[in-house]
UniProtKB/TrEMBL annotation:
The keyword Transcription applies. Keywords: DNA-binding, Transcription, Transcription regulation. This is GntR family transcriptional regulator. GO terms for molecular function: DNA binding; DNA-binding transcription factor activity. PROSITE patterns: HTH_GNTR. Signal peptide: none annotated. InterPro entries: Tscrpt_reg_HTH_GntR, WH-like_DNA-bd_sf, WH_DNA-bd_sf. It holds the Pfam family GntR.
Length: 130
């Protein structure tokens, strides 16, 4: 089961962070069709957020056709976002882990690593479009 976390520095509202985390877990194959999402009560207790925030996130995912609510039972994944090439992700993940270790050895903290990655990612994406 997915465990949500919130990042106050992300600039995203809490409900969008929850939505994004579910989508990412689905893309990586961590959440599959039929898997149950944590109950609203569990998410509220773990993250200390308003129940309406969780409900809003779950409603958006339901509207997108990714999850389905079963009254009295819970919310379940009803679709998948994987492209079937998860096997290809293994080598990329290992390479990324090596890069992260190298960045830490170079003295970068988590925030600096994230900033470096995001700016490089955005610049690279812009270059590919042009």
């Amino acid at each position: 089961m997915i465990e949500f976390h919130l990042d106050e520095r992300s600039g995203l509202s809490p409900y969008l962070q929850l939505v994004r985390q579910v989508r990412q877990a689905m893309r990586l194959g961590l959440l599959r069709e039929g898997d149950q999402l944590p109950t609203v009560k569990d998410v509220v207790a773990r993250l200390a957020i308003n129940p309406n925030t969780v409900l809003k996130a779950y409603r958006e995912l339901e509207h997108e056709g990714l999850v389905a609510a079963r009254p009295g039972v819970g919310t379940f994944v009803s679709a998948t976002l994987t492209d079937g090439s998860l096997a290809a992700h293994g080598p990329l993940r290992q390479e990324l882990r090596r890069w992260l270790a190298k960045a830490r050895r170079a003295g970068l903290d988590e925030e600096s690593i994230e900033a470096l990655f995001l700016t490089t990612f955005r610049t690279s994406a812009g270059e590919e479009i042009a």
